[in-house]
Amino acid sequence: MAKKDNLPTGNEERTLRNLARASAHALRERDLFGERRLYVPELLKRLKLTLTKDDRLGARGMIKDDEIKVRGGRWSLDRRLVILHEVGHAVLKRDYPELAQDLPHRQQELFAMHFAANMLLDEKRRVTLIERFRCITSPAELADTAQRFRFPLAIFLQLATWDGETIIGPDKIWLRVKHAANRYTHRDPKLRIISAHFDPAYWYVPANKGFEGLAGESRWLLEIPIGVERHRSPVTFKLQKVAAKSARTKFQQVESVGRLSALSLRPVRGERGAHLLVMLSVA
Ligand SMILES: [Zn+2]
């Protein structure tokens, strides 16, 4: 998760996103006839990168020189995203060697993320995704749209957020919320924000934090049957708003009244407890 004091400004982020998109586009075009599927092993071969599995790996993936390592386990879309992210680091060095040397770690991560997202989504699908996403008005609709695009919900939300053009404006904040322990201390299980998706020009919503700190008493969410969507309004949200440029702090605590919609999802395999997709409609 980004450190607050290390967030790139909008312009830098946009430049990096465009560079990453151009690199991904060039790699996709070379031998793709129309809508041919991305084949990761072929991409690795073309870039002269090797891939090994390492079960003792601390991170989900890493790259050193021309060797990408990923943690063992089953092959999934999530794993593809991890590999493409590492490929992104290699491509940054290959396509923009000077920039790669000067770029702070956080910006290198951004490039790799955008590269991975753009490898998974070709331009046509990307534009369609943006258009569809902007029209979504409920968690159930979002879950349905993710399914139509054949992406797991978590990845669909990530892709949409990375794009930077999909969630625009202050009025919607999307959250994945689970009954889970603290990501780092593995203690204190409660309803937590697993991932937050919002327009960073307006809000900062940290992940791993308790959901009740944001939306108040939320036990009612635990009682929603799987597959069912419920709403509550008005709810007072405690949010961190991006402060004016002249302000001393980057973020300002604000209370905002709005509507909370939650869809109860099937728990992820191997996990127990609530898993929710939450939409905050901020007035
Ligand atoms: Zn990385």
Provide structural commentary.
By secondary structure, this protein is an alpha+beta fold. Helices cover 39% and strands 24% of the residues. It is built from ten helices and nine strands. It has helices at 10-29, 40-46, 77-95, 97-102, 105-120, 123-135, 139-148, 153-163, 212-215, 219-222; strands at 50-53, 61-64, 67-70, 172-180, 190-197, 203-204, 229-242, 251-264, 275-282. The strands form two sheets. A six-stranded antiparallel sheet has the order 5-4-9-8-7-6. A three-stranded mixed sheet has the order 1-3-2, with helices on one face. A hairpin with an 8-residue loop joins β7 (229-242) and β8 (251-264). It is globular and about 55 Å long. The site of zinc ion (ZN) has 4 residues, from α3 and α5.
Q: How are the SSEs ordered, and which strands pair?
A:
Blueprint: H1 10-29, H2 40-46, E1 50-53, E2 61-64, E3 67-70, H3 77-95, H4 97-102, H5 105-120, H6 123-135, H7 139-148, H8 153-163, E4 172-180, E5 190-197, E6 203-204, H9 212-215, H10 219-222, E7 229-242, E8 251-264, E9 275-282
Parallel strand pairs: 1-3
Antiparallel strand pairs: 2-3, 4-5, 4-9, 6-7, 7-8, 8-9
Bound molecules: zinc ion.
Zinc ion binds next to helix 3 and helix 5.
